[in-house]
């Protein structure tokens, strides 16, 4: 692997370069040890630049995140073959999140079609789970033009809009009640733990499949044996090495063992449900519309 030149690990610019460089340092050290030579870390100047580098074999590893994974895997000629992603702290599954639409059953349960004529609390424009996914679901259902989307400003605000009582003075707080909202599993979990969210009191209208935070892959032109060697190096990265990345992206990483898990492209763009590639196609999105992975970008 090293005889052909210095291996390069490139990532999508989903956060500040300095923060990414620090977070990935332990991962790069682990890969360098496994491959027997120094691996060089690079932050792409843009998603388009990384797509070009990956598809032209200019990098060894290419990591895409959020909507960027869909652009890397969509079309007739995917930029990468996915080998791994980060592991969740829950039974060794891929670190992922879910987009969902909920209603308050006290004011009538509905399906996607039933949202026509309703006001729905969304998060922020360009949020993957709080805007793009639910908007694509409503578009495919043929009711998007009949739904009033109201951007609340964050995932937590959308959740609070759904749970807000009709008479806000009961809580002595200012909130606008919505009977329908787009929610993100990353917010629902902590909100349930703090007793701010009781899922048993609300009805899920629609949900996406699990959306992996990232896709880590290699050029599709590489020989099979080389891909296996590179995948083995990824899967040997210890859990402790990914904790900085987990803090950046905000997922629960394993405390012990390894930090990555094997995964394939079908987990991103070949789902029977609405997936990343469907969202891009349905909404006619471009790489320029991918947001940083701050708390609201996903």
Structure description:
- The chain has a six-stranded mixed beta sheet with strand order 2-1-3-12-4-13, sandwiched between helices. The protein has a three-stranded antiparallel beta sheet with strand order 9-6-10.
- Helix 1 packs across helix 7 and helix 1 runs antiparallel to helix 8.
- It is of the alpha/beta class and 298 residues long.
- The protein has two domains: 173 residues, 3-Layer(aba) Sandwich (D-Maltodextrin-Binding Protein, domain 2), CATH 3.40.190.10; 109 residues, 3-Layer(aba) Sandwich (D-Maltodextrin-Binding Protein, domain 2), CATH 3.40.190.
- Pfam families: Phosphonate-bd (PF12974).
Q: How would you summarize this macromolecular structure in one to three sentences?
A:
The chain is an alpha/beta fold. It has ten helices and 13 strands.
């Amino acid at each position: 692997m090293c005889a052909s030149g210095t291996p390069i690990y490139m990532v999508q610019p989903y956060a500040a370069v300095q923060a990414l460089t620090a977070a990935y340092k332990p991962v790069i050290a682990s890969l360098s040890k496994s491959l027997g030579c120094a691996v060089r870390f690079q932050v792409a100047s843009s998603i388009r630049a990384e797509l070009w580098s990956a598809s032209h074999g200019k990098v060894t590893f290419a990591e895409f995140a959020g909507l960027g994974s869909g652009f890397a895997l969509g079309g007739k000629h995917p930029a990468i073959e996915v080998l791994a992603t980060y592991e969740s702290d829950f039974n060794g599954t891929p670190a992922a999140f879910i987009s969902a639409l909920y209603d308050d059953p006290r004011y009538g349960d509905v399906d996607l079609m039933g949202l026509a004529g309703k006001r729905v609390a969304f998060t922020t424009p360009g949020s993957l789970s709080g805007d793009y996914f639910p908007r694509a679901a409503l578009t495919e259902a043929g009711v998007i033009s009949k739904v009033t989307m109201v951007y609340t400003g964050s995932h937590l605000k959308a959740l609070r809009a759904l749970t807000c009582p009709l008479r806000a003075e009961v809580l002595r707080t200012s909130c606008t009640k919505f009977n329908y909202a787009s929610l993100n599993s990353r917010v629902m979990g902590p909100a349930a733990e703090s007793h701010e969210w009781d899922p048993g009191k609300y009805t899920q209208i629609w949900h996406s499949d699990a959306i992996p935070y990232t896709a880590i892959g290699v050029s599709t032109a590489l020989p099979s044996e080389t891909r296996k060697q590179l995948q083995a190096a990824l899967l040997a990265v210890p859990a402790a090495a990914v904790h900085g990345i987990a803090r950046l992206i905000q997922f629960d990483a394993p405390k012990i063992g390894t930090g990555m898990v094997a995964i394939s492209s079908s987990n991103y763009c070949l789902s029977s449900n609405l997936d990343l590639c469907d969202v891009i196609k349905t909404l006619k999105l471009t790489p320029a519309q991918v947001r940083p992975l701050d708390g609201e970008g996903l």
